[in-house]
Design a protein that fits this description.
Elongation Factor Tu (Ef-tu), domain 3, five-stranded parallel beta sheet, 2 domains, alpha/beta, binds NADP nicotinamide-adenine-dinucleotide phosphate, about 270 residues, binds flavin-adenine dinucleotide, Rossmann fold, 8 helices
């Protein structure tokens, strides 16, 4: 029983009425000075679908800053993982830049989002198009065994400025070499698209351009079609807008009111 006469004990007692849990930072990995992944403890009741985002809070109780972050970890990991860009002057970024192992972070108990495979009608090829930190939820999605049974081809495209920004490259290339499931139906292809280092990747240029000039389809050796392709897009809102225009012209639609579609989006700002 909690001794409520001790204000310290009262503050530490978990409150089931609260909408968040307080988790502990387990590890921090800097990919570049402004790109960081971190792991936290996971509350036993925390449930999510790959592609969902959680709301995180840092700062003092009087001035908490809440921001949404996509889950990178798989549903069966006993920790939560996130990737974040440190935006100069950003309210959350300023706290994140000082985060240390052992620090506390608040995690909303509920998860949200429409960037989930169940938003899509059944298909043959799943195209996962990310810019920058938008790659995070796609690692969670391709670590879901059900996705390897539902599709024949998983095509991951990661658009970044510099090769150093290719977070989780090793994870995707490992999955491309060896599927998640023995006897899985799907194969995975991974394509970096680096925009500011000429010659650093087979594909260079922004994702909407690579769609428009057919280079993505060429690289994957697969045509984009309404019948077979399902497309998920995550990251920069201008990139998402341009991809959406391209796909809409081909007849693709987002899921609506329980009717699954052929494309799904998550815009980060
Ligand atoms: C549904 C959802 C999920 C998100 N998931 C992630 C995630 O997994 N990882 C992540 O880093 N951010 C994610 N974001 C953005 C994140 O919530 C914050 O906005 C961001 O990390 C910066 O917070 P801030 O308070 O420091 O600056 P803010 O004041 O929130 O942002 C300032 C500016 O920074 C730029 N910016 C914001 N986010 C990014 C980004 N991810 N990449 C490049 N530029 C950006 C934009 O120009 C924005 O206007 C997500 C946003 C949404 C809506
Ligand atoms: N990445 C870094 O080196 C770096 C360094 C310091 C700070 N930051 C911070 O991080 C933020 C940017 O992060 P980020 O590099 O992850 O994201 P980003 O600016 O969205 O760039 C990621 C990829 O998306 C492309 N892109 C940008 N606008 C696009 C559009 N309209 N259509 C299609 N593709 C588009 C970029 O191409 P282009 O290269 O052609 O723009 C790049 O390949 C900045 O606001 C800054 O605060 C980043």
């Amino acid at each position: 029983m909690v001794d409520t006469s001790d204000p310290g004990a009262q503050a530490k007692a978990p409150n089931p009425e609260e909408k968040w849990t307080v988790e502990k930072v387990l590890s921090i990995h800097y990919w570049t000075p402004s790109l960081v992944s971190f792991r936290t403890t996971r509350a036993s009741g925390f449930r999510f679908t790959p592609g969902h985002y959680a709301r995180l809070a840092l700062g003092s109780d009087e001035a908490l800053v809440w921001r949404p972050y996509s889950l990178v970890s798989a549903t069966d990991d006993d920790y939560l993982e996130f990737i974040a860009v440190l935006v100069p002057g950003g309210a959350f970024s300023q706290h994140l830049a000082k985060l240390a192992v052992g620090d506390a972070i608040k995690v909303d108990k509920a998860c949200f989002g429409f960037l989930t495979v169940n938003q899509l009608a059944p298909g043959r090829d799943l195209w996962l198009l990310a810019s920058g930190t938008g790659i995070g939820p796609f690692l969670s999605i391709v670590r879901d065994p059900a996705v390897w049974q539902a599709f024949e081809h998983l095509i991951v495209v990661h658009g970044v400025r510099h090769s150093a920004d290719l977070a989780y490259r090793e994870d995707f290339t490992a999955l491309a070499r060896q599927p998640l499931l023995a006897g899985a139906r799907a194969t995975l292809s991974y394509f970096p698209a680096i925009t500011r280092e000429p010659g650093a990747s087979q594909l260079s240029g922004r994702i909407p351009q690579l769609l428009a000039n057919g280079r993505l389809e060429q690289a994957a050796n697969l045509p984009l079609s309404l019948a077979d392709s399902r497309v998920m897009v995550c990251g920069n809102p201008d990139m998402a807008f341009e991809v959406r225009q391209h796909l809409s012209a081909l007849g693709f639609a987002t899921g609506r009111r329980g009717v699954p579609g052929q494309m799904a989006f998550e815009k980060y700002w």
